[in-house]
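We modelled the chain as a single entity of 263 amino acids. Its sequence is:
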Amino acid sequence: MESYKESFTKYFKYLINGIAFVGSFQCNLLYLANYPEGSRDYVPKPSEHCLPFKEEILTTSDNVKIRLYAIQQENNASKRPTILYFHGNAGNMGHCLPVAERLYNHTRCKCNIVMLSYRGYGFSEGSPSEKGLKIDAQTALDYIKEHEVFQHTKVVVYGQSLGGAVSIDLVSKNEDKVSGLIVENTFLSIPKLVPHVIPPLRHFTFFCTQKWESEKAIQNLKRIPILFLLDIQSFPDGTHVDTVAQPDYFDSIGRFLSKNIIS
């Protein structure tokens, strides 16, 4: 039978390991910049999808260089919405080009698209963190607002999974600069997500440094139209990873844009 001292020692080790795991390594757990393999070495280009584009290297306010694709409609670009697109926690912006292609070509969308690889993703410099990704997002929005064409368009911020949290935070601070928000399969906050995805760490969520408190941030939004795209709730056959492949996905976005954005 274990002594009190042995039990306490075991519990203490468990506590310390939990703290270290949640604290020191949470960025590695959350920001999967190297997955899938080769994501830091190869970033597909829009030209591979027959999309006209300009690749930009932007310097953030904390002096990190991030990569961005600006995909502009060839006709009436200033009269079409501009989608600011934030990808999930893995891969890079190039992996999202099939989605960008549909947003560009879909009859009810016909959008300009600005998409970036967060710091530490793709060919962008730096290391990912909540603070850093928020700076990257603001840098991308500022780019749109200074662009000779995009500054005259209605901006819709669109994010998938982690990108949804990035989007909500950005719009909560820039509601006057944005006309719409589209969020796919995101979460309330990292502390509320951890117990569901890593149950053994449910007791250590108070050590989270990466919080992404979307539930709080979204309460700051007063007027902006929002479209939530939620796997099985919005699309009966959808899952977290293939919601975008469901038949009505882009029609849903098109209807949202037609009703709220495109005049």
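As a brief sanity check on the tokenised model: Strands lie at 54-59, 65-71, 82-86, 112-117, 155-160, 180-184, 226-229. The chain has one domain: 35-188+216-260.
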